[in-house]
Amino acid sequence: MARNMEVITIEDILKRKEFFKNKKKEIKKLYVKSIDACIVVEKPDKELLFDVQEMDEEFADSYLVYECLKEPNLHSPEVLEAFKDKIKEPTDILFEIFDTFEVADIARKLVAMSGYDGVEEVEELKK
Fold this sequence. Notes:
This protein is an alpha+beta fold. Helices cover 44% and strands 12% of the residues.
């Protein structure tokens, strides 16, 4: 995809006001090797990302994935009931289903969906 190398102006933003107001939630399907199937995740909103930044690193990835995973719905009471003897926290269910590093990988994909690594330097400006 060709990149627009023009600097965006306030006028451009005002013209695109409706676009910014009506941005839809981004949904992606991800293939997970250990289960040989796909999952559906939703782009995290900024409030969730801010919450995750404040969390202990060990818990942050699993919380982010648990909150953004739409299919399968691991919030389902039936799923939580089925695994109740193996989990202490609802997020623990992720490690019953996915390999440990897959949870971290899914979390990285979610952060990337949110724009992390979406900005690159074009050129240095001179004063």
